[in-house]
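Dear support,

Our group has been running a series of protein-ligand predictions, and this particular one with fe (ii) ion is the one our PI (initials K.S.) wants archived with full inputs and outputs. We had some confusion internally about which version of the output was final, so please treat the block below as the authoritative record. The input we submitted was:
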Amino acid sequence: MRTLAWSEHFALGHERIDREHRRLLELSARIESAAEKAASIEDILPLCRDFFRLLVSHCFYEEQLLRKLPRDRFGNHVDEHCRGHARLIHQAQAMMTGQLPTGYDSLPAFLNAYFELMHDLLVDDTELVGSLIREGYHRLGTPEMPPEWLPSGRGASPV
Ligand SMILES: [Fe+2]
Ligand SMILES: [Fe+2]
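Confirmed final output from the archive:
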């Protein structure tokens, strides 16, 4: 089975995102190794629950940040990335009910495909979150520049 490990390659320089990516990879490696000895999905559900909770809050937070990127240059990429998040969450949700998502006939086959998708999204994060940091949108709260759609006056800086 494919084992994913944290590497500096994934470090983006965003404290919360890096910490959560690292934790998601740790949990996925634990799920993979537990699954090798598991008789059924039920045996790995407690680990999956921890993973799922973190995955949902991580994706929610990351998407709030990614939506700040200018739509004209990043919109399609961000939308596609968020669809990947939704797929991960949807499949994990199915697993939490003790079912293999449709299209998979064994737990190892499913986990292989699942963590491969997660790996691809992490690589994509390095590009998108990297842009976020370069463009100065990496903190939630007041944007450094007022968005163009703000009615005049509201976004203007006090003089
Ligand atoms: Fe992420
Ligand atoms: Fe992501």
